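A quick aside before the break. I want you to see a complete sequence-to-structure record at least once, exactly as it would be stored in a machine-readable document. Don't worry about memorizing anything.
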Amino acid sequence: MDCTCAECFDLNAFLKSPDEETRRFPRRQQIRRHMHSQIERHRCDLTHVTVREGSPQTLVCTKTNASHDRRLAQFSIDTQLLLEMEELGGPGR
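That is the input. The structure line, written in tokens, reads:
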């Protein structure tokens, strides 16, 4: 992420950590909103929910494999299309 604020620095550290799957960020609403927008803007592989208990409330981020899953699905489609092209006598014949 291109933001250099302390919250995004913490979020980037979490994203880079190979050992953490989930991290809790107790932050006030304005900061949670900023973090949420950065996660969405950069299409981070995270789910993020706000736990509305206590003060400040907590943004809970959990890593996912969303981008890998999208690429794997596209690879499967591309592979099938190539096979269909070969069956039809496509390029290279």
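Two observations worth writing down. The chain has one domain: 6-87. The beta strands are 22-26, 46-51, 58-63. We'll return to this after the break.
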